[in-house]
UniProtKB/TrEMBL annotation:
The organism of origin for this protein: Pseudomonas marvdashtae
Top-level taxon in the UniProt lineage: Bacteria
Listed name of the protein: Twin-arginine translocation pathway signal protein
UniProt-listed InterPro entries: TAT_signal (IPR006311)
Length: 181
């Protein structure tokens, strides 16, 4: 007798592994395809060391939302700008292979073909609401796909490290600063 749909699990371990593998191949293909087709320039934006013009709309939209709990509301725009500068300096010091992986993450998040299905933000990042961005971050943080959880973790760590490396962030968390030598 064949089991009914209610008797079988929604997604088996093997099915989850196959789905994860398929998603990994898809994301890698899109990232490589974008790089090879010229959709994503490897040249830094004007005045920046590592971040590209295509990365900036995404980062300008996401950074303020990620800093919301760590920064007082009226200082978020200045903190977001400072964080973007720190992030750029940090990325400029990555190894070429790590910078390539980071750019692939940004490509997946900014390329229209992958942005909508993977983030739930179907329009341009500039038009995304705070709620849309929070939903995207929550979706990736709680995803059943480890690749999306890793992407969320990487993005969160990059932004938070860029913010907390700045002296103006230290008072909020009670850090007096490095000892004088």
């Amino acid at each position: 007798m064949n089991p009914s749909l209610t008797d079988t699990p929604a997604l088996s371990r093997r099915g989850l592994l196959q789905l994860s593998l398929g998603a990994s191949v898809f994301l890698a293909t899109v990232g490589v395809g974008a790089s090879l087709s010229g959709c994503s320039s490897s040249q830094p934006a004007n005045g920046l060391l590592a971040l590209r013009d295509s990365d900036l709309p995404f980062l300008h939209a996401v950074i303020p939302v990620m800093l919301n709990a760590a920064v007082a509301g009226e200082t978020i725009p200045a903190a977001a700008g400072a964080t973007l500068q720190s992030l750029d300096r940090g990325l400029a010091h990555l190894s070429p292979s790590m910078l390539k992986l980071t750019r692939q993450l940004f490509d997946v998040l900014t390329l229209g073909v992958t942005r909508g299905p993977l983030t739930g933000v179907w329009g341009a990042w500039e038009n995304a609401s705070v709620h849309d961005i929070q939903e995207f971050l929550s979706r990736w943080e709680n995803s059943s796909l480890s690749l999306l959880r890793q992407g969320h973790s990487s993005l969160l760590q990059m932004v938070m490290m860029a913010w907390y490396s700045r002296p103006e962030s230290w008072a909020h968390c009670g850090y007096p600063g490095p000892p004088a030598i």
